[in-house]
């Protein structure tokens, strides 16, 4: 196995549908791209996707961006994703919002969808108020309608104006058992990777037809109502996407 990068080819400027389809082929929805909230910017180390979050709006369709990119036709027993995120200076964290992750199955399970174990699962990150962090996971044994929340250590804060490296790993469970795994590591500048979440008792699926197969690029404020929405324009940059195939 080796790491496969998602290549952002440029040039810098508006990230239109044609560019998006070239670099993320086969996606079935393109929130934020057609609306012009995604652009390609040059920064130290290369190119990055810049997502602008609309003031007063929540969700990927109105206030951020979102798509699902399938990297495998067959369900994989495990998957790993790496990317770098930088919240620009003055970012309005408000109450929280979503960051990219992994998912699997024929249905994209988000937004309060019922997770039965026979349609799909998802594992994303969230920023929370004041830059706190957590894993946000849809799995069959979650305690409520909306995703399960696994908090990062209480002393952690996402910084602004600094690159943060994310490393997300999922191992699918043996069918009928809760032996699946979830691990999230975060690397801040000039620091070693720190494990933020490690769960060894996950049940992701109840059928062997479902494994890991997609990157779920989701980033938006929310939350279910306007109290999660930013009060001012703000943006984050995403770069160095790669997955273990």
How would you sum up this structure, described in words?
By secondary structure, the protein is mainly beta. The chain has one domain (3-244): Jelly Rolls, CATH 2.60.120. Helix content is 4%, strand content 43%. The protein contains two helices and 15 strands. The strands form two sheets. Strands 1, 2, 3, 4, 6, 11, 12, 13 and 15 form a nine-stranded antiparallel beta sheet that branches. Strands 5-14-7-8-9-10 form a six-stranded antiparallel beta sheet. The chain is globular, with a radius of gyration of 17 Å. The N and C termini lie close together (6 Å). The mean pLDDT is 96.
Quick take:
The chain has one domain (3-244): Jelly Rolls (Sandwich).
Name the descriptors.
2 helices, Jelly Rolls, mainly beta, six-stranded antiparallel β-sheet, globular, 245 residues
Q: Structural class, judged by helices and strands? A: mainly beta
Report the total helices. 2
Q: Report the order of strands and helices.
A: EEHEEHEEEEEEEEEEE
Could you tell me the number of beta strands?
15
Radius of gyration, whole Å: 17 Å
Shape: globular
Major sheet attributes: 9 strands, antiparallel
Helix content: under 10%
Q: For the record, what CATH class applies?
A: Mainly Beta
Question: Mean pLDDT, nearest integer?
Answer: 96
State the separation between the terminal residues, measured CA to CA: 6 Å
User: What is the fold-level CATH name, i.e. the topology?
Assistant: Jelly Rolls
- Tell me the β content: 35-45%
Based on the structure given, which CATH architecture is correct? Sandwich
| Structural domain tally | 1
Unreliably modeled segments: none
